[in-house]
From TrEMBL:
Protein name per UniProt: 6-phospho-beta-glucosidase
Domain of life, source organism: Bacteria
NCBIfam families assigned to the protein according to its UniProt record, in alphabetical order: PRK09593.1
Gene Ontology biological process terms, A to Z: carbohydrate catabolic process
Organism: Liquorilactobacillus ghanensis DSM 18630
Entry's Gene Ontology cellular component terms: cytosol
Active site, UniProt feature: 384
Keywords from the UniProt entry: Glycosidase, Hydrolase
Alphabetized GO MF terms: beta-glucosidase activity
Length: 485
């Protein structure tokens, strides 16, 4: 194991921080002109995805029938100064957050932005800069304006390219002099398994036809390239990245059938979207993927101008989330299954699992970093990583989360190992640095943060912010630039 105490590993300007998303913590879902987003239409609870997967689900908000935790979040909209101050106390060098699209364009298709929404992010950005925390902004993070899903059918509709371009242009022009780091879409490849959150597609609008998913991806690729073009025209030095969900994948055994299936799973899920955004062109495996999913290329609307735009405007870096690894097996139908971050797989007997059944694999992160850097030779940024767990508040008002510290320590060690392997790693922003509403279940009880928020799944609690043991541990990690973990 590498000796962290004797040798500096991470660069002096390494971006230590944390990550959140507007729809999971801001609340204020209908205040100051904000319109509803698709996240606002997803009920809370373990059946969230099952409800959204019903054939007749059509993005209706029914507060008499369901509870919507996103509507309140953790009231970050009102308490952002308190939260940023806590991030500064930990020593954050950066803070990754998203701009709620429907806070700027409430219906998504307007031509004039909502100034009240822009003023909120003026304040949030300035509050970060006050503490010398660099904002890292995700332009679109699972919060498509609801109107664009209901009226236009989500990202399968090319009209959304224009709407996104307008949104990106407004926020880039407003903030480019203060914000250096950007990402265009969050976990864009997650639509491979569940296109609800990233593409605004549900069964009633065609999510079960993979042709629609591929068309939606293409439209997003074009929109992403337009954002890169706009940003670089404003300032060529802006760093604008893509963001993918990465799950290191292993073949179940040495059976060549499983080895081939695993290779194809890596090509399709881990690399396809990144290939287009980083290399500026569709990978050679595209034809095979379309064939496997019964997609006729002639049914896709892809223009010569689109392809030229992709070629000319690749991203500057690769941001990715890493929580777990998966196992690919097509030969053992009775193999035990595991849960995961929008994806599952066969259980790996060598790994432990989280409270929600996600397989914990720090070594998989080192593998992921090497695989991505070997393939693309572009700077990498781990913008999500963390342990969703049930935290208990003790009688004396403390949270002893040694399990979280252990999880994060092992993943930081894996990152350090990857750096010694030669990987160019920009930074690390653990997910949910303050407790927030879970994207996959709508629960507060699935906690990731260094900061405990007194709120339960039913919306009861004081919303008091409480420093966990991991808060003080991460503070020392940042102070030592990763040498004391």
């Amino acid at each position: 194991m590498f000796d962290f105490k004797s040798s500096p590993v991470f660069a002096k300007d390494f971006l230590w921080g944390g990550a959140t998303a507007a729809n999971q913590l801001e609340g204020a879902w209908n205040q100051d002109g904000k319109g509803p987003s698709i996240a606002d239409a997803l009920p809370g609870g373990k059946q969230r995805f099952a409800i959204a997967s019903q054939p007749d689900f059509a993005w209706q908000i029914d507060e008499d029938k369901y509870h919507y935790p996103n509507h309140r979040g953790i009231e970050h909209y009102q308490r952002f100064k308190e939260d940023i101050k806590l991030f500064a106390e930990m020593g954050f060098k950066c803070y990754r957050f998203s701009i709620a699209w429907s806070r700027i364009f409430p219906q998504g298709d307007e031509t004039t932005p909502n100034e009240a929404g822009l003023k909120f992010y003026d304040q949030l950005i300035d509050e970060c800069l006050k503490y010398k925390i660099q904002p890292v902004i995700t332009i679109s993070h699972y919060e498509l304006p609801l109107n664009l899903a209901k009226k236009y059918g989500g990202w399968k509709n090319r009209q959304l390219i224009t709407f996104y371009e307008r949104f990106a242009k407004v926020v880039l022009e407003r903030y480019y002099q203060k914000v250096h780091y950007w990402m265009t879409f969050n976990e864009i490849n997650s639509a491979f398994h569940f296109p609800v959150m990233s593409q605004g597609l549900v069964p009633s609008s065609g999510s079960q036809d993979f042709t629609n998913v591929v068309q939606a991806w293409h439209n997003q690729f074009v929109a992403s390239a337009l954002a890169v073009k706009i940003g670089h025209q404003l300032n060529p030095d802006l760093q604008i990245g893509c963001m993918i969900l990465y799950a290191t994948s292993y073949a179940y055994d040495a059976d060549p059938k499983n080895q081939l299936a695993n290779l194809q799973q890596m090509q399709d899920f881990n690399f396809f979207c990144a290939d287009v955004q980083v290399r500026g062109k569709y990978p050679s495996s595209t034809a095979r993927m379309l064939h496997d999913h019964q997609v006729n290329p002639q049914d896709l609307e892809i223009t010569t101008e689109d392809l030229q735009l992709l070629k000319e405007n690749p991203v500057d870096y690769i941001g990715f989330s890493y929580y777990m690894s998966t196992v690919t097996d097509i030969t053992h139908q009775d193999a035990a299954k595991s849960a995961g971050n929008l994806i599952g797989g066969v259980s790996n007997p060598f790994l432990q699992t989280s409270d929600w059944g996600w397989q914990i694999d720090p070594t998989g992160l080192r593998i992921a970093l090497n695989q991505l850097y070997d393939r693309y030779q572009k700077p990498l940024f781990v913008v999500e990583n963390g342990l969703g767990a049930i935290d208990e508040l003790t009688a004396d008002g403390k949270v002893h989360d040694d399990y979280r510290i252990d999880y994060l320590r092992q993943h930081i060690q894996a990152m350090a190992g990857a750096v010694t392997d030669g990987v160019d790693l920009m930074g690390y922003t653990p997910w949910g640095c303050i407790d927030l509403v879970s994207a996959s279940t709508g629960q507060m009880s699935k906690r990731y943060g260094f900061i405990y928020v007194d709120l339960d799944d039913q919306g009861n609690g004081s919303l008091q912010r409480i420093r966990k043991d991991s808060f003080y541990w991460y503070q020392k990690v940042i102070q030592s630039n990763g040498s004391e973990i």
